[in-house]
Request: fold
Amino acid sequence: MAKLFLGLDSSTQSLSAVVIDLETRAVVYEKSLNFDRVLPQFKTRHGVLPDRDPLVKHSLPLLWAAALDRLFAGMKRDRVALGEILAVSGSGQQHGSVYLNNTAAGRLGKLDPAKSLEQNLRGVFSRATAPIWMDSSTTQQCAEIRKQLGGLRATARATGSDTFERFTGPQIRKFYQTEPAAYRQTAHIALVSSFMASLLAGRIAPIDPGDGAGMNLMDIRRKTWHAGALRATAPQLGKKLPPLAASGQVIGKVSAYFVKKYGLNPEALATVWTGDNPASVIGLGLVRPGQVAISLGTSDTFFGKMRQCRTDVQGEAHVFGSPAGGYMTLICFKNGSLARERIREHYGIEDWAAFGRLLAKTRPRKNGGILLPWFEAEIVPRVNRPGLHRFDLEEDDAPANCRAIFEAQMMSMRRHSQWMGVAPECIYATGGASNDTTLLQVMANVMDCPVRRIEIAKSAALGAAVQAAHGWLVAAGEKPKWASLTRGFAEPVPGSEIRPHKAAVRIYDKLIRKFGICERAALAS
Ligand code: XUL
Reply:
């Protein structure tokens, strides 16, 4: 007998669904709807509304709701066995916020299947648009909240991160300051994740500690709202936030709207959602401390599970609650593929294979050249003035520059993740550039840790489906283990393991000291 679970991921540009069968360990269905393409009437570009101010990035909660209708209609058309789904969970783009008035709770409880979600929800918002994670218009509010909380270190210690423009607290403060009347009319503030969960559950849903940690409002150790942070952000905020509850925790049965309209199982459980990064941690199978993933994308990200709650005193990294219990970190390096591509273009190298071949012509050296590739303002370390810095490296030496950029990116990850106090035991590499074994060998050598490649396109939606299964099993009185739940779904590519070369590891142990000196010098210049 199949055991089906549905995971949804409401991301910046699309809404995705993954259905898993826990019995056969198979992904039985996946689908993505691109907002711009499927719902052009909302006039978003890459899921974002155009705005005159380049720092302002908003989207539309009604668009996300309309996409949910489309996705369910598509699943019904594709004959997905919706009547057999046992539980639904999900994930959302982090930090984005939705503002609802005092009619919302009642309306969510009486969603009319004869109408669309869009029609059902008209009039429930106290703010029509939702600021999302790409918004960087709240520098003033970040400074105000940070000051109230006692500075950068105190803010990071209290909430898991220093204040960041995209985090929800600074966004709420800006709304309160610029539109006080609309703020007063706001009865509920939701994250993208908890808003979507509210639609499925037919009631205001809790926020989980994974996504809650991306707000600068949650006490990271207690996993409760932080009274001082609420006070520093906006008046009456505690009354407008839902309770915090573990992701995957059962909210109730799914709303009758989805049962009557699409044939969803009336016994299916609606559960608490989380953020897309915490869900990806599950989807990639990072359920034990020491398991780390490095995603080589537009930006490079480093994320993994942590044994204890530690925070970064430099205030560069984020600590979130992990859906698999405990904590996870997310460290985002902006000059990832972006920087590698700039170097490739600069030397007229035709493709990544040729880049890898050039790099392989050189060897690691303990006093080797250092390249700090801050083409754009960097997040980690904080660099506001972009620029390229070369030390003991000739610009016209293409092979040495190819090696130096990737070595620098990996040494930066090693250096700026040391505060976690967890030496990685195994790295899962994912994202575009992870196809290149020359690059992965450098990664293994710098990190002194085996690297395996993992290719999971919809890791957040898959993580959400596994989270739904976990919530359902717990509600049935079982004590499921995360490692056994993810087995079979989140597996590295067979035969892809690359082990560190001991001689190279010894060289990088020395070169990283020089790297630190160069980085400090460049930051001070
Ligand atoms: C994480 C962040 C992004 C969004 C993307 O802090 O801002 O990764 O979660 O959806």
Summary: The first strand starts at residue 4 and ends at 10. The two ends are 65 Å apart (CA to CA). The CA atoms of residues 290 and 422 lie 6 Å apart. The mean pLDDT is 95.
